[in-house]
Amino acid sequence: MALVTTKEMFAKALVSDYAIGAFNVNNMEIVQGIVDAAKIEQSPLILQVSAGARKYARPAYLLKLVEAAIEDTGLDICLHLDHGEDFEICKKCVDDGFTSVMIDGSKHPFEENIALTKEVVEYAHAHGVVVEAELGKLAGVEDNISVDERSAKFTDPDEAAEFVERTGVDSLAIAIGTSHGAYKFKGEPYLDFERLKVIHGLIPQTPLVLHGASTVLKEFVDRCNEYGGQIPGAQGVPEEMIREATKYGICKVNIDTDLRLAMTAEVRRFLIENPSEFDPRKYLGPGRDAIQSMVQHKIRNVLNASNTL
Ligand code: G3H
Ligand code: 13P
Ligand code: ZN
Question: Is 255 touching ligand 2 by the criterion CB < 6 Å?
Answer without folding.
Answer: yes
